[in-house]
Structures are given as C-alpha cells and as structure tokens.
Amino acid sequence: MCVLVLAAAWAWGATPPVFAGDLDVLGDERGGLLHRYLMAELDSRFEQQRAEREQALRSPAALRAYQAKLKASFAAAIGGLPAKTPLNPLVTGRIDRGVYVIERVAFESRPHHHVTANFYLPKRDGPVPGVLVPCGHTQNGKASPAYQQLCMLLAQHGIAALIVDPICQGERLQVVDSGRELLPLSATTGHSLLDNGLMMLGLDAAVWELWDNVRAVDYLVIRKEVDPARIGLTGNSGGGTQSLYLMAMEPRIGPAAPSCFLCSQQSILHSPIGEQDGCQQLSGDTAGGLEHVSFAVMRAPRPTRLLAAEHDFFPIHATRESFGYLERVYQVLDEPERVDLFVAADEHGFSKPRREAAVQWMKRWLLGDDAPVVEPESEVLPDEELYVTATGQAVSHFADEQTVTDVLLGSAERLAPQRQDLWRAPRLADQQQKLTKLLGLRPVGSVSLVERGEVDHDGRRITKVLIERPHEPPVPGLLFLPSDLEAGARRPGVVYVHGDGKQADAAPAGAIDALADRGRVVLAIDVRGVGETVDLAHQNKRRYGGSSNYSAGMLSLHLGRPLLGQRVEDVLAAVEALRGVEQVDRGPIDLVGIGVGGPVALHAALLSDRVGRVSTRDAIDSFARDVVARADQYDLIDHVVPGALHWYDLPDIRRALGERYSPEAP
C-alpha cells in the first residue's frame, strides 16, 4: 500500500520551496543513517540474547537445552562441512633443538590444498599430549616470535605443539591476480577479499579456517607420538577466534585457552574496532542467537581458561562480563573449577604472562601437573628456517596446489545441476521463495512518498522525495516528470537505481532527462548505502576489502539480511511509491539498474509482478565469474548473498525474466 503525500507534505496549500541546483534530500539527517539503523537492529537482538541466556541458568536441564539450541545455530551458521579426504601428510625437514625437535610438515585439508605447519615434538618416551595452536593475524604466521616461544614452552614441558599457517598468512598466501601471481596483501585484507566469494558458496573465511583446524586435529591424533585422548587448544587474537569456534564444535579438544579475543560481539561493534575482517565473524551469527560467550557455553563443562589483556583493544569489561556468565554456567553444571580467567596488565598479544598461563592450564588438564610455569629465554628462528616449502609459498611449491578461489570455483561448477533444477520453468513461485529467504527479505508493507521540495535544475523542475516505511531508513529520491506532460495525463513509470547515487545521471540532458523526454516519469533513488545514505567515513572500515560499504555490509550479514536484499526492499518500496503518483499510469513499473544497482534491479524484477522491463548497465554479470573468481577485486560486499550459488546465479535471473530483461534502458 502506498500513501501519497506529495502535495500534503507542504501544509495549507503552500507552494513547495524551490532550490537551485541542490539535489540532496536528507540534509542534516543523512549522516550515519544506515549505520544507526543497523546498530539499533543488532542491539535489539543482543538484548533478546541476554534475556535468553539468563533463562538458561534456571536449571541443569534448561542449560542443556540451551546448549543444544546454540549448537544447532552454530551448525546452521557453518552451513555444512566437507567430507574428510586423505591428509597425505609429509615432513620436509627436522630441526633439533635439544629437548625437542621441530618438524616442517604439511597436509591437505582438502584435495590439493595444503596446510603448512610446524610440529614441536618433545624427546620423551611414550605418547605425549598434543596442543593445536592457531595463529593470529601475523603476516609470517607460524614463524611469529611470540608463537614460536609458546610452542617452545609447550615442548619444553613435555607437550607436543602443532602450529598451522592460516590462509593468507605465512606460506599460505591465496589471493592471485588475473595472471596467477600472488598479491602481497595483509592477512586481514586477504581474508576479507576471499570472504566475499566464500560467502557466495555458504561459507566464510572463519569456516574455511575452522575446517583447516579440524584437519589439523586429525593430523595430531594420527601421530604415533601423540596421545589422541589428550588434545588441547590455545590461540591468540585471530587465533583466539579460531580457538573459540573449534573448541565449541570439536569433541576431541579437552582444555582450551583462547587468548585476547573473547569479549562480546556487541561490545566490539560499539568500540572503535567496529566490524572486523572476514575471519572474525560468521554470517548470520547474531540472527542465530550467537555471541562470543555462546561458543564457550556450548563446550561446558570441558576445561576453559580465558586469557585477556587489561589494556587490549578488545573491551576487557565485556571479557569480564562474559566470564561472569560462564562462572554461573559451570556452577549450574557443578564444575566450577573447570573455568578460569587470567588477565595480565599489558596490551594485546600472546605476551609472556599469557603464554605461561596457557601452558600451565594445559599441564593441569593434560598432565595432572598444576605447578607454575616460568618461561626461560629461548632463541627464535628466522622465518626461512621454519619454511615447509622450498619457495616459501604452497601455491608455487606444490605443482597441483589449489587456492581457495580454485576450490570455490570447482564447487560452483559442481552445483550447476542443482541450480539448473530450480530454474526449470515453470517454477517462478519456488524461485521467488528461495530468493526471498536467501536475501532475508521482509514484507515491504505500507509506503509513503513525502515531498521535500523542488529544485530548478537548468530549467527542469525536479521534485525531491522521501520514500518512508515503518521501522526502515528512508529512501531519498528525485522525481522527474516529462516536460510535455499535460494536466490529468498519465505516463509510464521508471525507477532508476544508480550505484553512484540518484544524482549520478541527473545532469541536464543526461540519461534521466532522456527518459523523461521520451515520456517517462522517472524516480531516481539512493538505495541504502548509496549516495546520501552511505556511511560516514569514520564508521566504515575501508582497510578490510577497501569497500565503501564494508561496515554496512558486515553489520547486515550479522543480521542475516545481506545489503543486496535490503536494497531490493528499497526498490520494491520505490515501485509501490511511484505507482501512487498521480501522473503515473497503472501499468508495470520499469527498472534501470546501473553499477551495484544492476543486480538489485534484477532481483526486484523477478520478485515483483508490478515490475515490467528491467535493464542494467556497467554491472557485474555473474556471482561466480565476478565475485568468486575475482578475489583480487575490491567493493564486492555489495553483491554478497550467502549461499546464493547453491541455488542461482545472475544469468539464471536474466533467463527467467526473458523478454522483460534488456541491456538497453526502456
């Protein structure tokens, strides 16, 4: 339903004001509009989660039911893990360090996709406990001095340590250019660029790392020198994130000590850190009721020690709050001694106090030894001495190596028959239902078109409007009428969605003027995150993937509402609004989508029978070819629809539209 208030917005019959040349509609309201909306949506979810967590403490039975619910949500967020394939492990060298040796090892977490690692093995008789150490965001991965020192300390105390390079770190750089040359990107940028393609296949960078770590546990337990019943886990920063996810889902992990991460998603999003890189969160986690503490709750009452820094950029108050809740969880389960918090008066990092606390926790639960641990001075090795590969990179060392992107493109190709089945005609209702779910669409509901004045734009009068819906951010627009429009006449309508904003083609004698001169009533809009509604500079983390919408895109994914889906809602609302304009005929509304507006217009056209023809220009052609295959490209989060390539690609939509689609504007 559209409520038309074009003239009524200016009371008592007053003439709407006319502004010379200014095409802004929102004025002072524009700053941070989308960011505030998304944060309010998230905060509402976080409050619901807090209430649910409290209810779970009523009894052991209630807590067990809550744990089961969290595990189901986690499984849904992961989206399924692949079948285990042969590890094909190999050892390329050994370094004798006196009481222990360091082996340079590699294994395949997926066929032809190698994980490079160092294995610190004590010289002890009989099987020894093993600890997996996921790395934080160090560019040299496993060779970082703090991580070497941790592994040395574990080995010196009779515990084997396996430390693995995450993707985009150490010997596992992944992002290549069109000539298959590795790009020297930071770990966080690499994770975020890959994350776009991973999400299109229903994964995340975090899920990819999770699987690498599951296979690392597989490697640990097949080593004859390791006791498979005594496996621990500790990692710092990004390795703390990996530890959090792995300790929740991997039953073989006994004691765990995640360092410098567990606080709360809500506190991070409200802090200067804001949204993080692609491996630090899961798509739909907040929508599924998952917070940082959830992953520790899932594994209770297994032994868990949180390691933290008093002066970390991760909010320490939230770490203490989460630990307070964990203490109550373990009390309900009658195992209070199995949870602990260690805080050192220092800054972020796997510092000596936290290394000692991690090893002491492992010794307590894996060796039955609770004696204090004091780290001796130890010489760290140069990166090159720890290399598993001859070239320093798995991609160039292994002749058949597949990058993350290679694996994803293979998966997309294997899913083609499933996509083809959905798009066999006539199945429009099934297609619309699947897209509605994947996009996280909400009903458009009631729509109001509110006039905000007129502008004389080189002789053409343009009406400024706001498209409003309850509980959604307003959509600013510009309404262009044909110059020869007679009183009482009606003309066909066009909604114009430009990725650079409504003003991009609004110049005199430009593309929108040409449509109006051909007798069309054109409504050019700023879908959310575009034009006037783009986030303020300080609200956006451009360093992660370089996108002008990275923050808005990631916040939206926490909610299970991809930015593309929210923009589709904006377009469908604009269609309803334009249909209510007196000068527009009652036929279908055509769409024009340019740049990031192209895929938005395609989706909207398929989902609404009130849309007539749709045209696109300067837009991506395919999720597989232009998102998954181009991990070297920035500004792709605008196009991400998690899991889309299991069910459709953009060519499927164009084929389904048939003659309704044209590359030429109507």
From TrEMBL:
In terms of Pfam families, this protein maps to:
AXE1
Please report the stretch or stretches of sequence annotated as the Acetyl xylan esterase domain: 104-268
Q: Which InterPro entries match?
A: AB_hydrolase_fold (IPR029058), AXE1_dom (IPR008391), FrsA_esterase (IPR050261)
* Entry keyword set: Signal
Q: Where would one find the signal peptide in this protein? A: 1-20
Q: What is this protein called?
A: Acetyl xylan esterase (AXE1)
From which organism does this entry originate? Pirellulimonas nuda
